[in-house]
Amino acid sequence: MDELIRRRFSELAVLLESAMAECSSSITAAVDVINGAYGNGCGVFVFGNGGSASDAQHIVAELNGRFLKERRPLKAQSLVSDTATMTSIGNDYGYAQIFVRQLDANGVEGDVAWGLSTSGNSPNVVNALRRAKEKGMKTIAITGLGGGECSDFADVLIAIPSSFTPHIQVVGMAIYHVICERIEADLE
């Protein structure tokens, strides 16, 4: 077997164990925050850049559609899906404001703003989490090691204990899948 392949899979196995040990209570807290919002008729806004933007869309698909069980659709919106809105805001206000403006337009007190940033320092994600807190929204951030600036504005920080972006993304997917599974289980 190719040494690189063996090494990367071994690193991931170790990281998954570490993340389970270090992030479990934060994952439970994120589920509680989201369930609380849904229990109050509120919704979830998810956002990130690059691969995290794809993850944001994936999370919303699991919530709006279903994850594992037939159930009612859950109120969630990706802030990365509308290219006209994103490019308009980016052109007129700057890229660092693309999520802030959408939260200003649509987010209300009690909603959840869920930011994804492997570094924890993406300016548009940090700005959105800051604004969400100003609006009385609950905030969740999934980041890499340490949480970066997102940690200053996250009610719930899930900081994956790695600084290697590909591994953060893989473990992040495992985390948001288990969050979706727990949310569905709690609906019963």
Characterization of the model:
- It is a single chain.
- The chain is an alpha/beta fold.
- It has a single domain (10-32, 40-187), classed as Glucose-6-phosphate isomerase like protein, domain 1 (Rossmann fold), CATH 3.40.50.10490.
- 56% of the residues lie in helices and 12% in strands.
- The chain is built from six helices and five strands.
- It has helices spanning 3-39, 51-64, 83-93, 98-106, 123-134, 165-187; strands spanning 44-47, 76-78, 112-117, 138-143, 156-159.
- Strands 2-1-3-4-5 form a five-stranded parallel β-sheet, sandwiched between helices.
- Helix 1 runs parallel beside helix 6 (165-187) and helix 4 (98-106) runs parallel beside helix 5.
- The longest helix is centred in the first third of the chain and has 37 residues, at 3-39.
- The radius of gyration is 16 Å and the shape is globular.
- The model has no long low-confidence stretch (mean pLDDT 98).
Secondary structure topology:
Layout: H1 3-39, E1 44-47, H2 51-64, E2 76-78, H3 83-93, H4 98-106, E3 112-117, H5 123-134, E4 138-143, E5 156-159, H6 165-187
Parallel strand pairs: 1-2, 1-3, 3-4, 4-5
